[in-house]
Specification:
Layout lengths: L2 H13 L10 H7 L3 H25 L8 H23 L1 H7 L10 H9 L6 H31 L1 E2 L4 H4 L8 E2 L8 H4 L1 H31 L10
Helix pairs in contact: 1-7, 3-4, 3-6, 3-7, 4-5, 4-6, 6-7, 7-10
């Protein structure tokens, strides 16, 4: 992996993560992540829309006049989201009904239009596709982690309703903490989403701070006469 792809990977998954750093797409992030499967479903839909749209925009970027680039980008994104919505209606109908309006609202998601304008419109398709893939995976990870946290605290389960995405055979994937687990209602409500995301952002900032301190200590560590750290 060359330096460009390495930088795009680290940026999308960590340093410039849409959900934890840019804090984009918070409306679906908060509303949908009541459990792991809902977060996974919306995350995959957003990922597909992001990759398909950015690839298309990067391919035709030289043929779009600057004055109409935003309407053109939105039109391309809307076409891809409509296709994804139709596929979800056909193959994941129950999950589509749960996610509801948040599937078509991917068209207005700041992550999708933001990466189209900031990166895809200025770079070749291969780089644009990889950038959108990493950004989409980063956003997907935040969705599933937050959804899993809220489901676990609110209901004492994990992977409930997995059959909506993986079929009836996946009903046995549900993990239960305890049969008499009461749960915390707050985790299932909108305030629980804000609190959960706050913990994730705080954890990332803490890790970044510790990594920076470790790197700084390594640079300032004295070197002995043999060229080794003392």
């Amino acid at each position: 992996m060359n330096s460009t792809y390495r930088e795009l990977t680290v940026a999308g998954l960590w340093h410039n993560n849409p959900g934890l750093v840019q804090l984009l797409g918070l409306c679906p992030l908060m509303a949908v992540t009541t459990n792991f499967v809902n977060g996974l479903g919306l995350g995959l839909a957003t990922l597909l829309a992001l990759v398909a749209s950015n690839l298309a925009i990067s391919t035709v970027r030289d043929y779009i006049r600057p004055e109409i680039r935003i309407p053109a980008f939105v039109l391309i994104i809307a076409g891809n989201v409509t296709l994804i919505e139709m596929l979800m209606q056909a193959y994941f109908h129950d999950l589509y009904n749960i996610l509801g309006i948040f599937i078509p609202l991917i068209v207005t998601n700041c992550i999708v239009i933001g990466r189209s304008e900031a990166y895809a419109s200025k770079n070749p398709p291969l780089h644009a596709g990889y950038d959108s893939l990493m950004m989409g995976v980063g956003f997907l990870l935040v969705l599933v982690v937050l959804g899993g946290m809220r489901e676990l605290v609110a209901n004492g389960t994990l992977f409930a309703q997995a059959h909506l995405m993986f079929g009836e055979a996946a009903r046995g994937l549900t993990l239960t903490l305890s049969e008499d687990f009461k749960g915390l209602l707050l985790a299932a409500l909108p305030p629980g989403a804000f609190i959960g995301l706050g913990f994730l952002v705080a954890l990332k900032n803490y890790i970044d701070k510790r990594m920076a301190q470790t790197a700084k200590s390594a640079k300032t560590m004295p070197i002995n006469n043999f060229g080794e750290t003392a």
